[in-house]
Design goal:
With 129 residues, this protein is of the alpha+beta class. It has one domain: Aspartate Aminotransferase, domain 1 (Alpha-Beta Complex). The protein is built from 4 helices and 6 strands. A 6-stranded antiparallel beta sheet has the order 1-2-3-4-6-5, covered by helices on one side. A hairpin with a 2-residue loop joins strand 3 and strand 4. The radius of gyration is 15 Å and the shape is globular. The protein starts with a helix and ends in a 14-residue tail after the last helix.
């Protein structure tokens, strides 16, 4: 997948916007106010930073050594950098994007999720307001 493919795939999801908060050449996909995909270049090749459950992040790094690395300039426990060099199959990359989107969407406040038409958090009780 290319950056354009990732952007097109991400923009199909509910509540997603494309912004450039850091640099005009650094596209970022948001769900509501939360980042879930930061597209850039690392070590000279195109890459994308994606949020991941810590156990999944570790497993992805083991499965695709060199192609999936700890998140560049991100929390290394919760983010991976995926190098877009073809080593990670497109279907697997789409699964990683889906997971990153869901993790970011679940971290939105209840009101924000509802405003975007997103489902409630599963397995959690919302605090009373």
């Amino acid at each position: 997948m290319t950056h354009d493919d990732i952007i097109a795939y991400g923009l199909q999801k509910r509540g997603v916007s494309l912004r450039h908060p850091f640099d005009p050449l650094l596209p970022v996909l948001f769900v509501g106010s939360k980042i879930f995909a930061l597209l850039g270049s690392h070590t000279g090749s195109p890459s994308v930073n994606l949020k991941a459950d810590p156990e999944d992040a570790w497993l992805q790094r083991q499965t695709y050594p060199g192609a999936v690395t700890p998140g560049y300039h991100m929390n290394k426990r919760h983010w991976n950098t995926v190098h877009l060099n073809g080593a990670v199959p497109d279907d697997e990359l789409r699964t990683m994007i889906d997971e990153s989107y869901l993790l970011a969407a679940r971290s939105l406040r209840k009101d924000d999720r509802e405003a975007l038409g997103l489902p409630p958090r599963h397995g959690r009780t919302e605090p009373a307001r």
